[in-house]
Each structure stands twice: as C-alpha cells, then as structure tokens.
Amino acid sequence: MKMSHDTQTVYRTTPARTGKMMAIMLGICIVGGAIFFSMWDYWISQPAPVVAMMAGEADKAAPAAATGKTITQDLSFIESSDFRTLAFNSLPGEPNHNPTINMNVGDKVVFDVINDGKSFHAFGVTKADEGFAGIIPGSEIGAASNPLKPGEGGTSEFVAGEEGTYYYICTVPGHREQGMVGEIIVGSAQGGGSSGVAAAPTGVSHDFNLDFVESDDFRTLAFNALPGFDGHNPEIRVSSGDEVTITSTNTGKSFHAFGVVSNPEDFNNVIWDSAIAAASNPLKPGESGSTTFTAGAPGTYYYICTVPGHALQGMQGSFIVE
Fold first, then answer.
1. How far apart are CA 2 and CA 219, in angstroms?
2. Close Cβ partners of 43 (under 8 Å, ≥ 6 residues apart)
3. How many CB atoms within 10 Å of residue 162?
4. Amino acid 133: pLDDT
5. Model's pTM, two decimal places?
6. CB 91 within 8 A of CB 139
7. What is the reported pLDDT for 65?
8. What DSSP state is assigned to residue 36?
9. b vs e for 261-270, b when ≥16 Cβ sit within 10 Å of the residue's Cβ?
10. How much is the pLDDT for 114?
11. Where does the chain cross the membrane (predicted)?
12. Residue 179 contacts residue 88 (beta carbons within 8 Å)
C-alpha cells in the first residue's frame, strides 16, 4: 500500500536579514519620535480659534470697529524674595501694583512687557476668570513652553471686542494664582474717547495738584513723585460733567507744560481747554499754573506733560471719566 504525504513549504530567513529588518523598524521609531518631540510646542499649545469654536468655546476677541485710540501699558514681572508672591510692576501694597486698565470697545492696548524676575514667565490676555486657558490670539508674549527668561521682554496688542472684564496674566501654570493677574475693564464703544456724549454740568468740583518732578539724571520724569514712591502719577477719577481744577508747579530744572489728551502719544491733542502753558511757552523751573475745565464724555484719558518726549519718559497718568 502506497502512502502519500502532504508537503508544506517552510520559509526561513537568515540572522543577517532579521537584523536588517529590526534596524529598519528601530530607525522608523527613532525618526518618528524625533518628529514628535520636535513639534512638542505645537502639541501642547492652545487649539486654534476655529477648533475652540467647534468645541463650543466663545470667541473672546470678536472683531470690533476700531476707535483709533491706543493705550500703552508697561508691565514687568516681579517676584518676592521667597518667590511665594508674584505680581506685575510692584508687590501688593506698593504703588502701581497690577494696574487696572480702563478702555472701551474698539480701543487698542499695546503691552510692553519685561521679565524683571529670576524665574521664567509668559504673558497673555484672557476673559477666563481663573486658570491660564483662553488666551486671546495676538496678546501673547512667550508661552509656558517657551517663556521669557530673566531680562527678556516683548510687546503685544489687545483690541477689546466686547464689553466686560478681561485679565492680563502670566500664562505659566500657577503664576496667576500666585498673584500675576490684573484687570482690563472694557466699557461700551459709545462711552469712550472725546467723540462720546458729555453729561450736563453736575455742580461737583474737584481740585488736584500735579507737580512736575525729575530724576537727578533727567532720564525719568513723573508727576508728584518718582516711580516707587507714594503719589507717583496718581490716577484721577471724576464723573462726566464735573468741574476739575488742576494746579501744577514745575519743581524740576527743565521746562514743562500740562494737558489732558485722549492719546498719550499725541501731545498736540489737548482736550477740554485743560492746558497749563504749552510746549512753545512752557513753565520754567519754579513756575506754577492752573486750569479749570469740565470733564467730558466718559472714557479713559491721560494727563501728560505736553513738551515732546516727556510723556514717554514717564510724565503721564490716567484720567478716568465715569
């Protein structure tokens, strides 16, 4: 009896061929890993606005008609010696601590930020009242994954798209909770700038003294006191229709003049007949002057020295009409 057997072909490979296959697979893993980690900043970054909208998150920076008004805000990251308290410009209880910014829909803020601390920091504007998410595109300076090192700085812009309270913060996780947060109060577009409607005279009067002061090297100028001292560039708040009297004395060694403006960079745009002297006929050292005017439409304005360049050297403060 003849028996038949099924035959099966068995394919074998050599150790050398197996080694090549393993080397190819290992190479693919290494290259893939390198590509993944080289794009780490992208993987951990905030989602694009369209992704956020698809996920149901409201657009925090909806377009608004530009008012043409620009606010310049200098901010510096600072830390307490034990690093438990973080802040902008000065520590709690000191002048200019986390300054509040008042603006209107369509206004623009230009932030000039520097890291004066010893740790890493980053900057952004958000409408979220806690955490570090929802940063508005265009307001960022650095990022948690690529922060500002000590001594580094940068600039960014924020245009208010809607009324409400926004926040400027350090976007490094945990730093907001330690104190690096300030408010941006945005009013209605109708309420801002000199184009709004002023209230009728209220019969309320205010008197303010704003004296011109200078540092010894003349590099820093201010009203009433130099930065870091009590009374430095005090914020003035009045109501629309109030009568305001400003008295200024030139306590410095240079020439100065006073005025309220809607844009601190435009020293020719003095409003409400608020001028004391002028750049062409300034107050000499020791001279004084006074002006009385009625506060106009609600909004954020600025009092400055109208001698060209002096506002940029520090002679400017907020004049808020409510």
1. 113
2. 36
3. 16
4. 85
5. 0.47
6. no
7. 54
8. H
9. bbbbeebeeb
10. 96
11. 21-43
12. no
Residue 20, in any domain of the structure: no
Residues 99 and 184 in one domain: yes
pLDDT value at position 313?
92
Residue 38 lies in a domain: no
Q: Are 182 and 99 in contact (CB under 8 A)?
A: yes
Residues pairing with 62 in the sheet: none
Does residue 289 lie within any of the structural domains? yes
Residue among 121, 146, 119 nearest 39 (CA): 146
Q: How many Cβ atoms sit within 10 Å of the Cβ of residue 97?
A: 15
Q: Which pLDDT value is given to residue 4?
A: 53
10-residue mean pLDDT series, the chain (322 residues) = 56 73 84 68 45 41 59 94 94 89 86 95 94 90 93 92 90 95 80 57 95 93 94 94 96 94 81 91 95 90 93 93 88
Contact between residue 187 and residue 298 where contact means Cβ atoms under 8 Å apart? yes
Only one residue has tokens 């960079």, namely: 265
Would you tell me how many other CB atoms lie within 10 Å of the CB of residue 51? 10
Residue 131: give the domain boundaries: 70-191
In this structure, the chain runs to a length of 322
Residue 60 carries which side chain, given as an amino acid letter? K
